[in-house]
């Protein structure tokens, strides 16, 4: 029952840690209480994007003259979604793990001592490290009647077998806006309740209104300033007295780390948990509270796996090396897969100024040859935030059809600290939407 490394949580983050350490020759066990592959594979990233993709493809086709007709087959969309989840069967994932010399243990793992994990009464010990990758769980609001009301969370929203006749979505974050649009395009009558003056409030201020415009074009009724006070089956009451009704109510008010108290485990950039002697306890992914995004968690997982390997060989991971997740602080990319898409990396202008940076903000409409070819009447916006002292990018936001594929270039520019003067010589191909980079730099003053 001894291993070099024990990973608690078999989602994408835990899989990356376990693969890294096992490939490096350390005996590795991975504990999973539900499905190997985790939330992302079965109830989040993959099924949600599968639900959205067909509607996006159809809408994109209709924006080009010469395309006639077309409609969505909801049953086929749901079947395609289910294909991406392997019908919620993790057999393939388990086979992959075992083929990589990862020992899969079924059950709920709990750290019960130094280098000790207990699963269903069985005690396992780690010679090198224990890594907590337990992810996050839905954050439920303090609503009167919630305990007695069956509601949807993100899991039910992504795994439903039929299109609901009507749906009330509470919450204007990423899950809220994505699921509102997905189900509206599949035929549900959707109402989105947003507590503030715009959805996606953590993004640049122009993002939310553009997303609202897209949602309303799909028939979503968006209720702003809608703070909920109570709930009962099929009915949500707001503080201002408005009553919102629907066959199902999706509560999408955020997520919290999956720890006993819902608080994150504080880590350093190599994943070591703060306040634990002996340098044996690590964490990665949502449970750290750093960036609740699958790709960022996988990045942290790769850093943790590398750090464990290096320390097992007597080396300390160096700054900027693969054993340090320093990008968490400067270049976290995120895409909201609505239509229009939102692609963002780095810091907003407000965040950059709060850090004391002298910044110049460049805003413009995405109106280049590539975008006009991409869609008739293409609508989109871009923002570039430049640190004037270093003349490097610290934040970039794109909103528009298919802008997600522009994001990695912005991420590379920020991570690489590429100056605007050097970026000028990265010539965008014609005619693509990437031409927007040239327009941004021209607007900056080059």
From TrEMBL:
Residues 3-300 form the FAD/NAD(P)-binding domain. GO terms for molecular function: oxidoreductase activity. InterPro entries: Class-I_Pyr_Nuc-Dis_Oxidored, FAD/NAD-bd_sf, FAD/NAD-binding_dom, FAD/NAD-linked_Rdtase_dimer_sf, Pyr_nuc-diS_OxRdtase, Pyr_nucl-diS_OxRdtase_dimer. Its EC number is 1.-.-.-. The keyword Isomerase does not apply. Belongs to the class-I pyridine nucleotide-disulfide oxidoreductase family. This is NAD(P)/FAD-dependent oxidoreductase. It comes from Lentzea sokolovensis.
